[in-house]
Structure formats: C-alpha cells, structure tokens
Amino acid sequence: MPAYAWKGKNRLGEIQEGVLVSESRDAAANTLKRNGIEVMNVRAMAAERGKSFGRVPSKDLAVFTRQFSVMIDAGLPLVQCLEILGAQQQHKGFQRTIESVRSDVEKGLTLQAAMSKHPKAFNDLYVNMVGAGETGGILDIILQRLSGYIEKSVKLTAKIKGAMTYPIAVISIAIIVVAVIMVKVIPVFSAMYEGLGSRLPYPTLVCISISNAIINYWYIIIIALGLITVGLRQYYRTPPGRLQIDAFLLKIPIIGELLRKVAVARFCRTLGTLISSGVPILEGMDITARTAGNMVVHNAILKSKDAVEQGRNISAPLAETKVFPPMVVQMVGVGEATGALDAMLSKVADFYEDEVDNAVANLTSLMEPIMIALLGGVIGFIVIAMYLPIFNLANVFGKD
Q1: Domain ranges in the chain?
Q2: For residue 197, which phi and psi values (nearest 5 degrees)?
Q3: Distance, first Cα to last Cα, the chain
Q4: For the whole model, what pTM was predicted?
C-alpha cells in the first residue's frame, strides 16, 4: 500500500508529523482522526521499494520481533536496536533488510515507513501494527503481540504440514512401487502369456496396456503431468481460479473441515491481535482478509467489512456469509456487546487452534488405515489380474 506523509495536532495541541501506510489519502486521514490527530496536511509520498532480499522464514521473524520488543522495553534507542539485531542475524537476506531499515530510520523515516519498503520481509499486518505502536507510544507491547502472533501462526502451519506429510509419503511410495511393478514385472508376465494363444481376462489386459503405455510413452506422461501442474498453478493465480479451487478444497470431506478450522483460527487471531493493538476495525478487517489464506474466507471478510462501513455490526454480516461457524458468530456478537471484541476473538482463536490439534490427530489416525487399504488394494488388483490367466489354465487342465 502507498505511504502518506502527514502533519497534524494531537489532543494536547502539539504539532506532529509522520508517515502512514494506507489504502488511500482519505483512508489515511480517517485513520489519523480516529487516533485523535487533527489533520493539517496529508500528501502521497513517491512510491519507493527497498531492494528485495528475499522472503524471511517465519521463525527468524518471530525471534527478531521478540528480541526487538525486549530491547525497546529496556529503553535502547531504535537505531541501536536495529544495529544490534542486524549484526547478530544469521539469515543474510534478512540481515541486509534490517540494515536497510536502520539506514532509513537514521534518515528520518518512521519505522513503519522503513519496513513498508520491504514487503517480502514485513507484510501489511506487521507494518500496520508497528505503525499503531509508534502512534500510540507502545511499540514494545505491539512487538510482543506480534511475536506471539507469528509464533502461533508458525505452530499452526507446522501442524498442517505435519498432517499432510504421512499421506503424501504413502502415496509417493505407492506410486513408485506400482511404477516398478508396471515397468519390471508386468512385461515378464506379458511375454509369458503371448504364447498361450487364448484371450486374456479383462483385468489382465488393463494391466498390460497400462504397462505398455508407461514403457513406451513415459516421456509424454511426464510432460502431460508437468503441463497439468503448471496449468493448475497458473489458474490458481487468477482470482476466479483461486476462488474455485479454494471452494473445492473446503468441500473435501475431513480435509475441508480441517482447512475451515485453520482459516477461522487465523481470522480470529489476526483480527483480535490488530484490534488489541489499536488498528481501526475496518483497516484490521482489510488486513485480515489479505492474510486469510483462502479466497472464500477472504471474500466473506470483505463482504462483512462493507456491511460494517454501512453502520452494521460485525456478527450479522459474518453470519450471512455462511462461512463462519455459528459459535464464532455468537462469540463475536458477545464481544461487540461487551466492548471486548479483541479478547473474545483471542478466546475463539485459542479454541479453534485446539480444534485443529484434535482434527490433525484424527486425520493422521484415519489416514493410516485408508492409505494402507488403498495401497493394498492397488497391489492386490495387479497381482490377481496377472495371475488370472494361470488360474484359468489350471481350471481347464483340471477339467481335462
């Protein structure tokens, strides 16, 4: 998002200046007004991006944020904190990013504006929360919340990857085993059956045909699979394609429910963290939508945001989308009514993160017998198909 230089008076009548990252000039002015600033001037800054040093691993970002908050809380100057953190950083790309941020802060830029020049390292959520911390004078507290948020996000992602590891490994092994059987074993049986002169059973013909196709046209199969993979990736990068694929994933039995719980946990954790850090609700919902990780959830949040802009509360629009479970909607409604929406969202996030733990455990225990049965069924079909002609011959000789 673009950066805007602003000048205005705070509640004490003191003139202040700064840089704010926002969607538009009007949105920046509205944000300043909500933070108690009487706006005197808001102007767009020339678009500027820092040199890209690549993406930063979430674990490194979490450690950086935690250490940064401790140093700020201890009273160290901002530039000195960045200098120390940059010098001890092991990730070379992130080290250069921190040094670039330190250099910009020394030149007079706010920390928010300096970090916004490196979107691959600091996303919108990070930048806006840092801006809220600078404006409110609670940067150390905001950084503590950010580090906690990132750590929870890393754990959530690790759980999903862990749940997918076992089925992917079993399927990969199954594909390799079947490919070896098709290339090495089936041709031996095929050559043996050529001299029988009788019609082979249909399952046997299917196996032999698949084996011949793999042996003779393996390069075409590989190219076709590669084109399908690239095509799906390109289609997923388009808004309609991503919406269709994400909607399909949510409808898959068991896995879809797990993905929905992950999306709900991420939504509640992100929005709760932003609101508790002083980010305005509309801006928080916009950032939360961009970090949802699922286009269906993204669209549902934006629809709710539009309704909130028209003066409605959050819970009713969330219920109308039919994406969020009734419990989430009711808890959000209670949070609005009691004025503790951020605390309520955090509690819902905790609950759904525990639900994700249970869902991952259930998925792992359920996938094991399914994968074994699938692999055994495929191998069993191949074995029976290749021995059917021998069984038929045995029956013929037995009758004679």
Answers
A1: 1-47, 51-122, 149-400
A2: 75, 0
A3: 85
A4: 0.68
